[in-house]
């Protein structure tokens, strides 16, 4: 239409994208250590938050870190080697050592602040985007 000019993304839409990117920042994630020694995982039960990582360090022997459902597997690790995995979703993750299947342990992942922040940011972004689109639609309708 004459006199109308094309506009780029609204500042509200840009703000929504920035909210999502900031909320997804893993800067607050922690790394927890599990030692593998004396035919045991220490600690045998670990509770962490979504977004955190677990690092398994073999102190003695040859062992693996294998999820019961096979979602992750370190293969066999020798003394001095480590395996690390980041847990994004809440849940209970039992694991064991393949060569020594009596060695069992569990990682429990709770919804942490970063997980909740991403959810809240997604809701906020959706609301802001909806507002921006509504204003844009009303403007065009005039």
Molecular structure report:
- The chain has 142 residues and is of the alpha/beta class.
- It has one domain: Cupredoxins -  blue copper proteins (Immunoglobulin-like), CATH 2.60.40.420.
- Helix content is 30%, strand content 29%.
- The strands form two sheets. The protein has a four-stranded mixed β-sheet, with no helix packed on it. It has a four-stranded mixed β-sheet with strand order 3-8-7-5.
- A hairpin with a 7-residue loop joins strand 7 and strand 8.
- Helix 1 runs antiparallel to helix 2.
- The longest helix is centred in the last third of the chain and has 29 residues.
- The protein is rod-shaped.
- The protein starts with 10 loop residues before the first helix and ends with a helix.
Query: How many structural domains can be distinguished in the coordinates?
Result: 1
CATH topology: Immunoglobulin-like
Indicate the low-confidence ranges by residue numbers: 4-9, 16-24
- Helix percentage range: 25-40%
Instruction: Write the H/E string, N to C.
Output: HEEEEEEEEH
Estimated share of beta-strand residues: 25-35%
